[in-house]
Structures are given as structure tokens and as C-alpha cells.
Amino acid sequence: MAIVNEEGIRDIAVAGNIIFEIFKQIGKLELAGMKTIELNDKIDSMIRSRNGYPAFLKYRGFPKSACISLNEEVVHGIPDNRVIRNGDLIKIDVGVKYNGYIADAARTFPAGQVSDQARTLMAVTKEALKKGIEQAKAGNRVSDISRAVQNTVERNGFSVVRELTGHGVGRTLHEDPMIPNFIFDGPNPELKAGMVLAIEPMVNIGTYDVVTGSNGWTIKSRDNSLSCHFEDTIAILERGNLNLTRVMEA
């Protein structure tokens, strides 16, 4: 489990600010009617224009610069010529490398008018991320984050995806420790100042079971129920934490 020094955390914060700006710009777009590849290309251009590099591109063979997943797709959707429709939930996961360090974050956006259930799902997933982040502090353990996320999700009647987890992040995209969104048996390290974590609840309306699509990448809910994904990159400080993908927010 890598400990990142102050200079490295600053570089991750710069990468995180690039992601923050990307999501801010996406939030202003009329998403219904756009192709997912058009979104990908906008994201790629925004990353490069800010002296970053798309961390997902070619990572383990992934072919695009962002993961864009629709509706029942949980994560790892490959941007293509699919057209976003009114009522869709769009999950956009972006990684940016800057000066050798990586930030990773995801947001779920509604296209036009979405159902009340979809809006509730988004609100619960955002709240689960918030509660998880509150537990990301020195002296706690990974399980404190996991418990906070799972409790928030399940008391609202939704399911936490079990086959995917958050993770450490720094010079590489996926580092130790794993950050499950549920209580688990296995390594449960203590959180220490200098650790950088990508915390990312993935929440389904129906069962938590998932399947991998025919492209070998896209992961979907097994029962085709709606899924939601929010993620931030967090630096553990001596006291509390710093959200490196929201540092421009008030």
C-alpha cells in the first residue's frame, strides 16, 4: 500500500481538477441525442487540452478514453455509436494521469426526464459515497468505509455490487488496498495518512449479481435493473481527508 508524498498528492489534485472540470462541462450538455463516442471524444480532448493523459486508454487493452455505461450497465461501457435517449442514466468514469500520478472519478448523469426511482437511486448512491468518504480517515480501517456504504444502500432497499470494488490509486490506476462496498472477509488494513483511495459505490435497483457482456468489458446487472455509480479519489490526511476530485467545490 503506497504512501503518497505531498508533491504526489498535489499532482493527483491537478488530475482531479481536470476530472472535476470535465464533469462540470458534461452537466451543461443536452445528453439525449448524443452518441456515447461523441462524449468520449469530448472527454479525451478536454483531458489533453489541460496537459493530462487519459489513464483508461489502452489500460489492460481498454480501447477508449472514458468508460460510458447506460442504464443496466454498471461499469466499463465502451463508447460507440449508441445514441443516448431521454430517460437514460449515463455513468461516466474518467481517469486522468498528470505528471505520473492518477485521479479516478465517476458520476451518473440523467438524460432529460428520468423516473422517480432512478432519481432515488442516484441520491442514495451519492449519499453512500458521502458516508464512505466520511470514514476515510487515519486510524480507521477499510471495513469502516465498506460498512458505511453498505448500510446506506441497503436500508434504502437497493443492492451493492459485490464483484467490483474501490481501490488505492497513485502512480498506477489500481493499487492496494481494495475498498469493497460491503462487509467482507479478507485483508482489512488500517488507513494511514498519505494513502490515496478511489471510493466508488456501484448500486443496483435489483439484485447485486452482475454479468460481463459479449465485448468482454461491459458489466451489467444480471436482472437488467438500473445501476448507478459515483466515485471520488480521496487522500487520507493526518486529520480527516481531502477529496481530490472535488477540491474546486465550495
Distance between the termini: 30 Å
Q: How many beta strands in the DSSP annotation? A: 15
Name given to the CATH homologous superfamily: Creatinase/methionine aminopeptidase superfamily
Q: What's the number of helices?
A: 4
Sketch the topology as an H/E string, one letter per element. HHEEEEEHHEEEEEEEEEE
Please identify the structural class as seen in this structure.
Answer: alpha+beta
Looking at the structure, the CATH topology is Creatine Amidinohydrolase
Mean pLDDT reading = 96
Shape: globular
How many individual domains?
1
Biggest β-sheet strands, sense, barrel: 5 strands, antiparallel
Quaternary assembly: single chain
Strand % is 25-35%
Low-confidence stretches: none
Radius of gyration from the CA trace?
17 Å
CATH class: Alpha Beta
Largest sheet, order of strands side by side? 8-7-9-14-15
